[in-house]
Amino acid sequence: LVANPGFEDLAGDKPARWDHFVQPMPGADAALSDKAYGGAYAVKLHIPTPYEKEPVNNWSQNIMGDFGGKTLRVSGFIRVEEAKEA
Question: pTM above 0.85?
């Protein structure tokens, strides 16, 4: 259901079929990373200092279909470096 789940297909310097949002802050970024669990790429969010309010930074993708009454399970791996809070 998820297109390009391993982030391997690229559109320029971003993974194809994925969108990202990063709340504006100096140094905050969403980008490809070569620190993948498997394959060549992963995606990352870099936030240099905590936001005053809860951010909504994310990588996302719309999944289209008739899923009413069904359970969708998505799994993945998260790597954290130098996190002070989450």
Answer: no
